[in-house]
Amino acid sequence: MLSDNREALVRVKSFSPDKIRELVSCAYLYGKPGTLGSLLNRPYRAVLGALYNADTDGELSRLGEMNPHGIVAGLSAAAALCGAGESVLVLPSGNGFTQLRSAAEKAGITVADEDFIDCRAHADDLLLHWAALAAVADLIIGEPQRIITSVNSRLTEVMPGEPVGSVMAPGDVKAVRIGASYYTPSVMSEPARAELFAAGGVIKTYGSDCCIVQAAYEQIMRLRKRCCGKCLMCREGLFQFGEILREITKASSNPAEPALAKEIGEALAPAAHCSVGEAAAECMLTVLENFSSELDSHIKKKVCPAAQCAAFSAVYIDPMKCCGCGDCIAVCPEDCIEGKPGYISMIDDVVCTKCGKCAEVCPEGAVVRTQSRIPRLPDRLTKAGRFRR
Amino acid sequence: MISVSIDGIKLSVAENTSILEAALHNGIYIPHLCHHKDLPELGACRLCLVECDGISDPQQSCTLKAEDGMVIRTRSEAVDKLRRLSMELLLAAHPEDCTTCPKYGRCELQTLIQYMNVSATRIHRRVKSILKSTNPLFNHEMVRCVLCGRCVRACCDMRGVGVLQYNKADMETYVGTLHDRLLKDTDCRFCGACAEVCPTGAIQDAKSFTAVEKHDKLLPCVANCPAQVDIPRYLRYAKENRLGDAAAVLREKLPFPGVLGRVCNHKCEEACRRGELNEAISIRNVKRYIADMDKQMAWKSKARRMPLTGRTVCVVGGGPAGMTAAIYLSKRGHSVTLKEAMPKLGGQLRYGIPEYRLPRDILDSETDYITQVGVTVECDCKVACPEALLREYDAVLVTTGTGAGVRLPIPGNDLQGVLLNTDFLRDVSTSDQTGIGERVVVLGGGNVAFDCARSAKRLGAREVSVVCLESRGGMLADPEEIEQAAEEGVIIYPSSSFEEICGETRVSGVRIMTVSSFRFDENHNTIIKKEPGSERIIEADTVIFAVGQRPSPLPESALELKRGYIALIGDGTMKTSIEGVFACGDVVYGTASVIEAIAAGREAASEIDIWLGGDGDISETLAPTERAADKIGIIEGFYGLKRAEELLLPAQMRSSGFSECSGGLSGDNVCAESGRCLQCQLRLQIEPARTWTDYVGKGVAQQDAQ
Known about the structure:
The structure holds two protein chains of two kinds.
Chain A: H1 5-14, H2 17-24, H3 36-39, E1 46-50, H4 63-66, H5 68-82, E2 86-91, H6 98-106, E3 110-113, E4 126-129, H7 130-140, E5 147-151, E6 154-158, E7 175-178, E8 181-183, E9 202-206, H8 212-226, H9 232-249, H10 257-271, H11 275-290, H12 292-301, E10 314-317, H13 327-331, E11 337-338, E12 346-347, H14 357-361, E13 367-370
Parallel strand pairs in A: 1-2, 1-4, 2-3, 5-9
Antiparallel strand pairs in A: 5-6, 7-8, 7-9, 10-13, 11-12
Helix pairs in contact in A: 1-5, 5-6, 5-7, 8-9, 8-11, 9-10, 9-11, 10-11
Chain B: E1 2-6, E2 9-13, H1 19-25, E3 49-52, E4 59-60, E5 71-73, H2 77-92, H3 108-116, E6 133-134, E7 138-140, H4 150-158, E8 165-169, E9 172-176, H5 193-197, E10 203-205, H6 214-218, H7 220-224, H8 231-239, H9 243-253, H10 257-263, H11 267-271, H12 283-293, E11 312-316, H13 320-331, E12 335-339, H14 348-351, H15 360-372, E13 376-378, E14 395-398, E15 404-405, E16 418-420, H16 421-430, E17 439-443, H17 447-458, E18 463-467, H18 479-487, E19 491-493, E20 496-502, E21 509-520, E22 526-530, E23 536-539, E24 542-545, E25 549-550, E26 561-562, E27 565-566, E28 581-583, H19 586-589, H20 594-611, E29 647-648, H21 651-654, E30 662-664, H22 667-675, H23 700-705
Parallel strand pairs in B: 1-5, 11-12, 11-14, 12-13, 14-28, 16-24, 17-18, 17-24, 18-19
Antiparallel strand pairs in B: 1-2, 3-4, 3-5, 6-7, 7-10, 8-9, 15-25, 20-21, 21-22, 21-23, 26-27, 29-30
Helix pairs in contact in B: 8-9, 8-12, 8-22, 9-12, 10-12, 12-22, 13-15, 13-20, 16-17
């Protein structure tokens, strides 16, 4: 790794333009997939080093602490490469990044504290991700290109061409999210390409106990919080995505909604001005494409395969496990659990909202959430341990 | 120039033109919402999509620059589908309250909905929880906002004010101000650009208006001025310290700006939209300063002089109406003679308005202009029969005004010591002998009554009273006149009836009663209700009637009269019953203001010019005609800026002589005061809302719609 930007600049000057183009051609970019090499054909007013607008995970920001000199050197080099007059390092507001900040200031780079980049205001600027800058620095000093990623919150690297799964621990995987896209586990055998990581650089795996619809809903909500609201398609598209996904998890959607979501997603992807809209469209479209059976199950069969969507499930207290402590009775917001000390608690299924608070406090793990038939339960107060099927 | 084809129509457009602009300019309509001709593009609404040969995805035509040979189609299946989806998404977040929205019928969004025939039925609707806020001049109901961003761009990019911005509360983006302050607590300049460009009912004028009413509602100062002086323009020049240009603006409509700067009844200030924020602009005083500073009179070089027509006009009466008409008739190339009964020009300006309100050097310098434009002035020349002048002149204009005072039919009205307003004020202006004593009672409550009272005070009367029928609040005189008179020691008896002037041969007092109410019946007779037992006598040795003025009779004239005033034949004309004789000013409609007389004089000049074979165009372009800068920037604390106070002599010094009471505004104050102007006219520079029906139906889209 580089320790300051001077070395990088000296090296940039010693390379021929073709060499540089070749070197940085694989560096992945802010927002849209593509290569840095192809972007250097036009002049820019400034080069900005920033995190993604759509970065709802914030995990790659740790790069700022891990490799501050690489980011700064990459930014100086990129600015020199495209002849931009100014280079700006954008830091998320708040404290931190002291090393990165001082390295940038020392290198004569303007530091801006901004959580969101107005891409319209930077139409004449080149926007590069911190990770891309670090990669540029690596390429210049002749180190192999690596793709920096975070797998389930662990920052790591993957070499281009290696299978994506090589950085992941084996286990129960139903879905893999890379950036904002949801893939089936088959993606793990695909070779890693920079584009795969274009929208966030984060890998998250989901086991069979996760509902992808809910995961996507939460993802969309995080993006809505980031959305600046200026572009119609992004602002209203995200709202519709959220509503559609929420209604699916609440068992109240109609069968036409996936088609509507697809129409909006396909219209949003090319319309987006920044990564927020792109990420949301990718999230929605990949869920529709790769997890259509899970969606169908919710919409048509009224079953959440992961048994996570409360609207489809039933909650009961396993009479074989209940110790009669009564903790569940105390926390129930609907006051729908019957019981007394030493007796098996019973949930009134009609009133229960399946909120799951009882399950959280039960010391025996006796509260069961199920999508299937409820077994025979006591029909009157029964002493704990006395119930026989 | 580059050539593009839109819907098969070949167009030649300038470089760097967007496809949307090229299409709209050539009458081809492409639906659009966030685009506005005068604002930078945002490219947010996705309604203006078009197909472009060689590009796979539909493109936003507002940001797509025309390139040579481009082939564009404004409609296709893909474009229509995307456009409709955008509209559906937009409507999902817009309340369905069109029928109760004041913008109904003038709403751009509404016409777009009609054009596209889209509703948000298959989409999740959402209700935004954004409250409305009421600001001076504008109402914000941001729940109707579709976030097209026009107002933000108008405020930031066009005006350089930057008060409106995108705010975000949790997940909801909305247009608002920093910390959601009310506009009055921001640096808002109240220019109205936001309301002008808003395509929905989100930001609206508090008082809505139609397109026809727009000019007058937005520029009430100009609309209220009888002479239609371009007030915002000269205030802008005054603010920029371009006093010569400001004076030129005044001179385009007014031959006597220095006079008006002192005595105008300033209807403009009553209507000023600034008044809805805090206080109206002190327009009259700014005008006064501009006129007083205009020593160079650079505008004179641009004044229009038509070649001589060989036609002759005689104007009878040298008051403001007559002088104005004479000036403009002369500029039209006619040979004009002005006959004035008194020794000097000015009419009521000289022989009515006292010197402490209008110094005679100001008057003299402005009436001099009349001879400069070639009018032959004949003073001390009383005309008894105007129509007889037709033997010598092609046309005659009678502007003899209302020079006769009115003597009310009450007991004692002919005692010694009873004077008429007109005679008294004339004597005040011309001689030292006015015939007043120590204790003077003025009957009447208008400006003339106060002119009499304050003059009497200045002439040394010990005790001066003003008695009038109206209550204190209902008096016809300007509030500042009443206030200043009171400061000078004039005693005011409002709500009082004049019962009798007491005395044997000389006045000894006036008997009055307290009036509880009064009204006028259908015959213009006063019905007065008095409080029984409220009689009392104000002791006096002089009584001045100041209860109105009437035209002096024209003893040998056969002109048709109506209640003593010269009758005109029909509306909107200044023709009298005798062909070739015209009349205007007070002699036609009764005592009014100087500015009305000037406006009437201008109108008469135009009409007589037409009658003499001209085109009647008396307009002049004396000031620069450049477009005002759109970018007005911020003035700190603009909302609360106080109206500049005029410099007023202390009451003691005022009442001891006839030197001018008011010093007007100081130079620094003039700049600041003009800077308070909202510059409402800037809004008229913005392209008004246009809808699809405004475009000539050339494109495919229109043909389908029809």
